[in-house]
Design brief:
Layout lengths: L8 E11 L2 E12 L2 E13 L4 E9 L5 E13 L2 E12 L8 H19 L1
Pfam families: Bet_v_1
Protein name: Bet v I/Major latex protein domain-containing protein
GO biological process, one term: defense response
Length: 121
């Protein structure tokens, strides 16, 4: 599947597998970040429909060259017709010399804004 409205994403692959009555969803994201091709393989750790929260765990890819663990939490807060999306990163650096993942956050903010533009037009 190609993510058609975000120009920096090359492709997204989705794999579904039934594991003892639970569903494993593995996403592979190929994208451009800072002018370089990147790959992120992640699984959805949890989906909370009541609280509108999804937690992704990075299991392979470029981020794990810098971080021992990396979780992405997405929460949507709805007020009337407005939706506010909050992205939260939980990560452990491999060593103190590694910077915080601000370019990754900027990338995700851009995706959120492009999705919003797509849905409003």
């Amino acid at each position: 599947m190609t993510f058609y409205y975000v120009h920096q994403i090359i492709s997204v692959q989705k794999f579904l597998r039934d594991m003892t009555q639970s569903l494993l969803i593995k996403l592979v994201l190929h994208h451009i970040l800072d002018g370089k091709a990147q790959t992120v393989k992640q699984i959805i750790e949890s989906i909370d429909k009541v609280h509108k929260t999804v937690v992704y765990k990075v299991i392979e890819g470029n981020l794990l060259e810098l971080y021992k663990t990396f979780l992405v939490k997405i929460h949507v807060d709805t007020k009337g017709e407005n939706n506010l999306v909050t992205w939260t990163f939980e990560y452990e650096k491999l060593h103190e010399g590694i910077e915080d993942p601000t370019t990754t956050m900027d990338f995700l903010v851009k995706i959120t804004k492009e999705i919003e533009t797509h849905h409003l037009n």
